[in-house]
Design brief:
The chain has two domains: 194 residues, Spore Coat Polysaccharide Biosynthesis Protein SpsA, Chain A; 76 residues, no CATH class. Strands 1, 2, 3, 4, 5, 6, 7, 8 and 9 form a nine-stranded mixed sheet that branches. Helix 7 crosses helix 9 and helix 8 packs antiparallel against helix 9. The protein is globular and about 55 Å long. Helix 2 links the parallel strand 2 and strand 3. It is an alpha/beta fold. It contains ten helices and nine strands.
């Protein structure tokens, strides 16, 4: 199977070299890797250039944007700019963060997963982060059937059906919901351990704290699903304030009548799917 990788990179000089090393050492190499140097002020570009000199399938795209690391919009903007450099001659496409180390057989296994069924539209492993003792531990705050946005692979059919990535906070949830709306499944492999070099959310702008609640509004969750999802999120993170931030973000977006990410029919499907999962967990 042939695949493309797009890596948005903003000031990733500390980690990017390790990420690219893990890509060029894959047992199944990509057809092309686009590294989007997104307004970096460190040595990110120098690292990209060093790899380009050795590996012709790696290309660079320099772009300008805000220096604020806002979740959702910044990374998807960079991804979409990289996407413009690629054609449609691929079997699957990957959005990869610039602070991830993948096992050498990662994409060979992803290709194998996609080959098992045309119904599988999104696939990935699980994130591990290093604790203070130097031990790599699972850090997967979502359900086990969720693929983290840091290392997401989509078949061409699925990526086309969902219309690519939505330019907003919550893009890596709405993509999976829309994939299921279009009849695709999500597949995760617990044996694929992706090392996440920067702990979740460490680079995000503090102004982003209300965006999760806004995302729940724009995905047409409705208040009660937002309430339940926010309670679960706050409990998993051990941060009670996250619950209140989500609710404030939801109510603020509702008051300001923010545009939805999905249409009415998609929203109805999403709510039914969410309620189904909530009930399954309550009565299992």
């Amino acid at each position: 199977m042939q695949y493309y990788i797009i890596i948005p990179a903003h000031n990733e000089a500390l980690f990017l070299s390790d990420t690219l090393h893990s890509i060029v050492n894959q047992t199944l190499l990509p057809k092309k890797v686009v590294v989007v140097n997104d307004n970096s002020t460190d040595n990110t570009e120098g690292i990209i250039d060093r790899f380009i000199a050795t590996y012709p399938f790696i290309v660079k795209l320099n772009t300008t944007s805000s220096s604020a690391h806002m979740p959702g919009s910044k990374v998807v903007n960079a991804f979409n700019k990289g996407l413009q450099l690629l054609d449609s001659r691929y079997d699957f496409i990957v959005k990869l963060d610039a602070d991830i180390i993948l096992p050498h057989h990662y994409f060979e296994k992803i290709a194998s997963i996609f080959q098992t069924s045309p119904k599988i539209g999104i696939a990935g492993g699980f994130a591990y982060e290093e604790d203070i003792t130097g031990t790599w531990k699972l850090n997967h705050p979502m359900d086990k059937d969720h693929v983290r946005g840091a290392f997401k692979a989509y078949t061409k059919n699925c990526f086309t059906a969902i219309g690519g990535l939505r330019n907003a906070m919550g893009w890596d949830t709405v993509d999976e919901l829309l994939a299921q709306y279009h009849g695709f499944n999500i597949s995760t492999d617990h044996t694929l351990h992706a090392k996440h070099l920067r702990p979740l959310g460490k680079a995000y702008n503090p102004k982003a704290k209300l965006l999760q609640g806004k995302a729940m509004f724009t995905m047409r969750y409705g208040f009660w699903i937002t309430l339940i999802a926010s309670l679960k999120m706050a409990a998993k993170q051990g941060k009670p304030q996250a619950f209140w931030d989500n609710i404030r973000g939801f109510l603020k977006a509702k008051k300001e009548k923010k545009p939805y990410l999905v249409n009415i029919e998609e929203g109805d499907f999403i709510r039914r799917l969410r309620w189904k999962k909530i009930k399954a967990k309550l009565f299992r």
